[in-house]
Amino acid sequence: MSSPDQDKLFEVLEQQKLHQQRVDRVLKIVIPITAFLLAVICANLNIWSTVLSFVMMWIAFYAVSIKQLPLWHWVIVIALYCLIDNILTYGSYNQSGFSRQFGAMFIFLGVFGVGRRYFDRWSMNKGKL
């Protein structure tokens, strides 16, 4: 036999789960579009850099926003990817290319990673109106 407080708690948790699923559906549409636009802007000077930047950002955005994996793990992965891509593209380390690519990826990764919590809160508050 459950108490009314437990029933109310279970109801609120069910509503929170539904709101999180709604946010997940929206992010599954927004993530690839953002990754594509960002890859076209920040990739280095060849097609492989553009394609792999798109794939890397899609995976990283999905991991930090939908799977909610630790943000700093993916910052390290993005930094290593940018360093390897930079060396393969330019033949040696190019500071401006690395700064442009990593800076854009890092900022948007942070927006998706940190912003997920705010999207969830906004969705819950919107549901109460």
UniProtKB/TrEMBL annotation:
The chain crosses the membrane at residues 25-41, 47-64, 71-90, 102-119. Keywords: Membrane, Transmembrane, Transmembrane helix. It comes from the Bacteria. This is Uncharacterized protein. It comes from Acinetobacter gandensis.
